[in-house]
Task: inverse folding
């Protein structure tokens, strides 16, 4: 109570008004609330603490708060960080498939404990019965027989080195992967000053628009992957034009699972679109 008093939490902004809860039977136990954009916190920058009040007393099993991480204080220009990490504010915005695991797992903290904690796609039904090799010795595949995921970086940055971890993916590791980046204008990356967290939805619409062709730049050329292995790629492995980027796209050939993707680099100040 002393800690709550010190924070003056009784004076905080109301997010969800007093709402009736139903008993904990299977058909009534879960309650979902959607937060409108006006409740996004100080000038749309989100919240650091949440207070839950129950009336008059009783039991609540779980409280889940879904949203996007915003940590502007650690994003110092020039300081090398994992630009894609969820803990720094990286967000998955689109993917071709997430049948067994979502792209959000790629940027989760630590290493995956099992395959379920990685990003794994379903087998493409259009896969040929017999694969052929291209001139580079890798599988010859049309774009529609690959899978991809797009991540919005925590902040635009220059890429210095990478990590691709196929931990636990043994018989279902992709043959290879390609990593690309793009720099979208500042407004698309962070949104308006009033509500930067809305930017993710706007960028997703642009990326899924059939007439929108984005000019992706190579970061790591198509490179073979080994099952159940932590792959490290240094500065010399990365294409010379590696940044700055606001978004990164990983394409896997032909499908399968990757547990973690780390994009290490230094934040930069995005140029004005004016």
Result:
């Amino acid at each position: 109570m002393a800690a709550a008093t010190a924070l003056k939490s009784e004076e905080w902004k109301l997010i969800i008004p007093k709402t009736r809860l139903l008993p904990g039977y299977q058909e009534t136990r879960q309650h979902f609330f959607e937060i409108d954009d006006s409740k996004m916190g100080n000038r749309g920058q989100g919240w650091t603490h949440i207070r839950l009040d129950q009336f008059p007393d009783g039991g609540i099993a779980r409280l889940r708060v879904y949203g996007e991480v915003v940590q502007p204080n650690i994003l110092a220009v020039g300081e090398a960080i994992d630009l894609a990490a969820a803990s720094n504010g990286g967000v998955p915005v689109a993917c071709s498939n997430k049948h067994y695991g979502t792209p959000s797992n790629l940027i989760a903290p630590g290493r995956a404990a099992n395959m379920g904690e990685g990003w794994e796609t379903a087998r493409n039904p259009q896969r040929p019965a017999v694969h052929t090799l291209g001139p580079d010795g890798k599988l010859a595949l049309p774009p529609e027989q690959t899978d991809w995921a797009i991540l919005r970086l925590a902040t635009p940055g220059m890429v210095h080195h990478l990590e691709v971890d196929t931990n636990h993916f043994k018989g279902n590791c992709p043959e290879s992967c390609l990593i690309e980046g793009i720099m979208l204008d500042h407004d698309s990356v962070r949104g308006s000053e009033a509500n930067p967290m809305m930017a993710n939805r706007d960028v997703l619409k642009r990326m899924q628009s059939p007439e929108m062709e984005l000019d992706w730049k190579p970061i790591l050329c198509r490179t073979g992957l080994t099952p159940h292995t932590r792959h490290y790629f240094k500065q010399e492995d990365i294409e010379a034009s590696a940044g700055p980027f606001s978004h990164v796209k990983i394409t896997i050939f032909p499908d399968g699972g990757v547990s973690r993707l780390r994009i290490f680099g230094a934040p930069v100040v995005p140029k004005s679109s004016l």
